Amino acid sequence: MPRRIAALLTTVATILGIVLFLPASSASAADCAASWSSSAVYTGGMMASYSGHNWSAKWWTQNEIPGSADVWADQGACGGSTTPSPSGFVVSEAQFNQMFPSRNSFYTYSGLTAALSAYPAFATTGSDTVKKQEAAAFLANVSHETGGLVYIVEQNTANYSTYCDWSQWYGCPAGQSAYYGRGPIQLSWNFNYKAAGDALGIDLLDNPYLVQTDAAVAWKTGLWYWMTQSGPGTMTPHNAMVNGAGFGETIRSINGSLECNGLNTAEMQDRVNKYNAFVQILGTTAGSNLTC
């Protein structure tokens, strides 16, 4: 209702002693800044919009996707979009339970949805099909890494003392054997705990055990790797899914040095099988380029 008409009606109602209920005006959403460009250079304070949000660069950056790199600060929804809520995740709790019928009670659905705020571009980028494919791809790799969300920590304890790189200036303050694999993508090595902790604002170098005691932290480390790390591949798993490279490239980024190029086809195929099962649960298609 135009403001002048609303004001006139209110005045008349006041004179006549009538209680008038007018529809509340809705607050306008922030305007979106110019769309983020992978080729553009952004310096501190410059704005860009991506995935329905405005983002502010903290310092110089180029080709670092908003929502998947610490250089960007989320300035909130724009253009009428709203921040994705846990209930808006493309995987429902019922579907999650269907995917992981024998999961360890540590890996809660609420822990996963609580972790989503750390990387709002995850499973919210692209078409509905792409969003579901990315969620299925992440969870398929997670399922392979953890035996169906059964294992919280690496099972081969003989490896525990090998994940400390003393050449790093910060060393291994939690102890020589403290940086074994934990969580949904089995975070390991002191330098990975340091990098993940720095990105998430959590001191994981000194407190690596948080990854096996706090479900939201565990899920956040998995999303950190998915959204920001290329591993032995050439792109992050997130970019592989949203840019059409396919599920096979996510395998390459997570464990390609051991499973791709014909090295261990059984392990690779297990990931593919899980992905095919999960996209079916989500009611979508698998896409192309499933193997590596």
CATH fold topology of the largest domain: Lysozyme
**DSSP helix fraction:** 25-40%
Low-confidence parts: 1-29, 80-87
CATH class of the largest domain reads: Mainly Alpha
The outline comes out as: globular
Report the portion of residues in β strands. 5-15%
Biggest beta sheet summary: 3 strands, antiparallel
Tally of contiguous helical segments: 10
Strand order of the largest sheet: 2-3-5
What is the CA–CA distance across the termini? Answer: 58 Å
Domain module count: 3
CATH architecture of the largest domain: Orthogonal Bundle
Computed CA radius of gyration, to the nearest angstrom = 23 Å
Order of helices and strands: HEEEEEHHHHHHHHH
Rounded mean pLDDT is 84
Number of beta strands: 5
Q: What structural category characterises the helix and strand content? A: mainly alpha
Report on this model:
- The protein has 292 residues and is mainly alpha-helical.
- The chain has 3 domains: 44-77, no CATH class; 86-150 and 226-281, Lysozyme, CATH 1.10.530.10; 157-214, Endochitinase, domain 2.
- Helices cover 38% and strands 7% of the residues.
- It has helices spanning 3-16, 93-99, 109-115, 128-146, 190-200, 210-213, 215-228, 237-242, 247-259, 265-281, and strands at residues 41-42, 47-50, 53-57, 61-62, 72-77.
- A 3-stranded antiparallel sheet has the order 2-3-5, with no helix packed on it. A two-stranded antiparallel sheet has the order 1-4.
- Strand 2 and strand 3 form a beta hairpin.
- The longest helix is centred in the middle third of the chain and has 19 residues, at 128-146.
- It is globular, with a radius of gyration of 23 Å.
- Residues 1-29 and 80-87 have low confidence and may be disordered.
- It comes from Actinacidiphila oryziradicis.
- Disulfide bonds join 164-172, 260-292.
- Residues 1-29 form the signal peptide.
